# Entry
Amino acid sequence: MLSDNLSIAKKIYKRKKHIFASTLIAMVMGLLYTFMVKPVYTSMAYVYPSSLATYGQESQTEQLLQFLESTEIQLYLIHQLNLAKHYQIDTTKENHLQKLKYILDEKIKISKTKYESVEIKADDFNADTAKLLVNSVVNGVNWLIEKEHKEKYSETVKNSLIYLEHKKHQVDSTQNLLNELNKKYEYLNVGIQLKDVVKNQYKMQSGGSNNSLTDFINMSEQLKGIENENKGKSLSELFTSINNYSLQYGKLTTYFEDQVKGWTQANDDYQKNVFEYNRKINFVAMASVPLKPLTPSWPKRWVVMFVCGIAVFILSCIYFVYIDNLKQAYAKITEE
# Structure
């Protein structure tokens, strides 16, 4: 085994000039290649999810990744940045979208970091486009999440509006009943003053008050005012009407107030849902904004030269050892 290794080393040393020349040529060619190939510029950003609702056991970062890797984001980039023109793709061909999606899969890399953030990295032969791709990905995911947010709250707004209309119908119906009573029984059109009289009358009938002389005097003065406001109606007639219908009117008024409170609450809910629907928010927070790259990320000239040199050096060693072995084998055969 040792003799075989020594034999190989001797053959390599014997061919050192050839191997060195081949390695040097490969490094020079690798260097020339770096000047001929289009440079690649890389821009990146680190983002965090913001204002995302959680569903199931997925974290907000995992949800954000799903949005970022969706087809809708690719289509958003294709149309917003006119990438077909930028990458010289013929849009008259049926498979042009597939080609553009494949290019974006190669040029845009999205990954989760150990800090629960998301790294967005974009490569392009144009430094401005590389930065623009990253920015557009962030804008696109905000647009996509906002669209789904609006679709979600659209249903909520519709349902809350239906409920608001229902409560409004109840209020209007009760108001119509009160208006009919006002029209039928003229004593009811005195408003707040009559309401107090009705309450006092109801309390006195039900024993809810002490029935003091002051209460009777106050109610008497109120009734006189009502009689003056309702000419043609005697006090006894008004009192009889109050006595007969005060309980009904009081219950209906209480019911009307409850319905108004319900409508107010429904209107507040509706306004909140409309506000939430129209609210403009960013669902992605940037921890590190993308910058325009000043130097290309590829090709790295010294890396290319080193890789080319090492590769050709190894191949040259294998080749010349193999050639020498063939020559030795051929010499043995010819000697025999």
About this structure: Confidence is low (pLDDT under 50) at residues 187-193. The radius of gyration is 44 Å. DSSP finds eleven helices and four strands in the chain.
